[in-house]
Amino acid sequence: MPRYAWFALLVFGLACGVPPAPANGPKTAREKQLMEAKAEEPPPKPPAGKKWRGWRYQGDRSECFFTFESHCYKTREAACKAAKCAAPKKCDVEDGGPSIVSCK
Fold first, then answer.
1. Do residues 70 and 100 make contact, with C-beta atoms less than 8 angstroms apart?
2. What does each C-alpha distance from 18 to 34, 36, 50, 84 come to in angstroms?
3. 3-state class (DSSP) for residue 65
4. Local confidence pLDDT in tens for the 104 residues of the chain
5. pTM for this structure?
6. Alpha carbon distances (Å) from 96 to 37, 47, 59, 73, 99
7. What is the phi/psi pair of residue 99, to 5°?
8. How far apart are CA 78 and CA 35, in angstroms?
């Protein structure tokens, strides 16, 4: 292939580059993300009359090793005592951080 053919291909390739972005479009990736976030649907609202309480530990959080009904307990015995399991059921502890106490 002659040298002028390579030169012509190079010039043609550079001339056919990427088209410029529209004037009103985002200039950076952050602007694009913000524009897409605005276009998305807003999060669903809870039904009227119901308030989301959220999860909060009650008790001493620094020593929260066992929980029963969102209350913290330092020892397994204290958590099982708070559960007050009926006669046929026994205190059951599911491992985790913190462990969850229930009656089974």
1. no
2. 24, 23, 53, 72
3. coil
4. 567 777 777 777 666 665 666 677 888 889 888 888 888 767 667 667 656 566 666 666 677 888 888 788 888 888 888 999 888 889 999 888 788 898 98
5. 0.43
6. 35, 32, 18, 14, 5
7. -70, 145
8. 53
